[in-house]
Amino acid sequence: MTPKLYSFWRSSAAFRVRIALNLKDIDYEIIPVHLGKNGGEQLSDAYSNKNPNCLVPLYESNEIRIHQSLAIIEYLEEIQPEPALLPKSPIDRAWVRSIAMDISSDIHPINNVRVLRYLTKKLGISSEAKDGWYAHWIQMGLVSLEKQLSSCPRVGKFAYGNHPGLIEVCLVPQLFNALSAKVDVSPHRTLMRIFHECMQLPEFMNASWENQIDAEGLNPVAPLQK
Amino acid sequence: MTPKLYSFWRSSAAFRVRIALNLKDIDYEIIPVHLGKNGGEQLSDAYSNKNPNCLVPLYESNEIRIHQSLAIIEYLEEIQPEPALLPKSPIDRAWVRSIAMDISSDIHPINNVRVLRYLTKKLGISSEAKDGWYAHWIQMGLVSLEKQLSSCPRVGKFAYGNHPGLIEVCLVPQLFNALSAKVDVSPHRTLMRIFHECMQLPEFMNASWENQIDAEGLNPVAPLQK
Q: In angstroms, what separates the C-alpha of B217 from chain A's closest C-alpha?
């Protein structure tokens, strides 16, 4: 049976898994879960019974269900090691994971849809202050990432050597968010160089917002697509 | 050289690594980094040059430096596999990682010190509303965790079988936060049963808040220590 990926076109976490599946050339079927409609389809009984964490993505293959994007990707890496998304040596693996987790644990969760909703609906924060919040955490995170990558001898054409891996899987969706929110990414030359390398690859392009079956409206990062 | 762990007594992420090091019986030296004093010692030049992400923990061993608690723990698991903190089979590993990441990616980061500081200092949120925010994300996360563990055949004396592993490494620090914030944990029977099992083990006790060299004041979770 073709694995299913419960996904939302704009979800960074789902985007990561789409890239990883593409890089590993694993066929999958997208099941859209709309994070806004009907109060959020991720909160429906049907979905929350499959994934009590009520977030996307969810990976489903035969009897197996896994949520949490990085847990899914580590699983894919274990069942199909090539092409590898992680290096071989423990210290290099740790470095790659730490950069990936800087994004998945320290930037992304603070800007999750449900967090933004709490800010505006529960705390009465203005839309402007919410946008400031969103940009603040992204910019702070990108500054740290650029600092770590700009002087790192591990960096080649991509963040680790000359092939995209777990870092790009996390970085590209985060930069989509940054660009969409008009965060100034110009100081982050290493990150943006890697981003543009990635966006020339079909594995990233096919996973991106505008190429999802549930994409809405115009290409949200149109200024990128020169 | 004895590895160093840059740590703060109340930091959940540092607490995780302290437990993991104890479970693996790896000797380490604690270097305290105070997240409050002097505007936050994690932001000092000396520390941020070692860890540009400006968070604790940081693990340092000879020439090696790793930040991000789960990246450190995966590294420790790779260089010293026994006692194992992760199961053997890919699907079970994925399950354990997904539960651990529910905590490390979806509960903890939203309640990080810097996030709470932004809420009160930048957004002018009251102390009461901040406490509500803190409790909200913990309670929501614990509901999901209890739902996942309460009916899971993988659960034994501990979350995965009869030995503590990555789930407990993440769960116990999160429950310290919950109890300290007086979140009602009574509905979470499976989680609390596992918590009490853990707190009978020296590996967890020695890693806990009150047993750190930089602990301040009274035992913050005193009601627990019956």
A: 29
Cα–Cα nearest to B103, from B12, B206, B194, B210: B12
Q: What is the DSSP letter of A223?
A: G
Q: Are B32 and B7 in contact (CB under 8 A)?
A: yes
ipTM of the complex: 0.95
Structure tokens at B23: 């479970």
Question: What would the pLDDT profile of A215-225 be if each residue is shown by its tens digit?
Answer: 996 555 554 44
DSSP B37: G
With beta carbons less than 8 A apart as the criterion, state whether A186 and A142 touch.
no
- Domains of chain B by residue range: 4-79, 90-224
Which CATH number is associated with domain A4-79?
3.40.30.10
Fold of B90-224: Glutathione S-transferase Yfyf (Class Pi); Chain A, domain 2 (1.20.1050)
Q: Is the pTM of this model over 0.80?
A: yes
Residue B170 sits at the chain A interface (C-beta within 8 Å): no
Indicate the residue of A71, A90, A109 with minimum beta-carbon distance to B94. A71
Question: Which tens digit of pLDDT belongs to each residue from B163-194?
Answer: 999 999 999 999 999 999 999 999 999 999 99
* Cβ-defined contact of A123 to B129 (cutoff 8 Å): yes
End-to-end CA distance of chain B: 38
Cβ pair A148:B91 closer than 8 A: no
Q: Is residue A91 very low, low, confident or very high in pLDDT (cuts 50, 70, 90)?
A: very high
* Inter-chain residue contact B52 with A78, CB threshold 8 Å: no
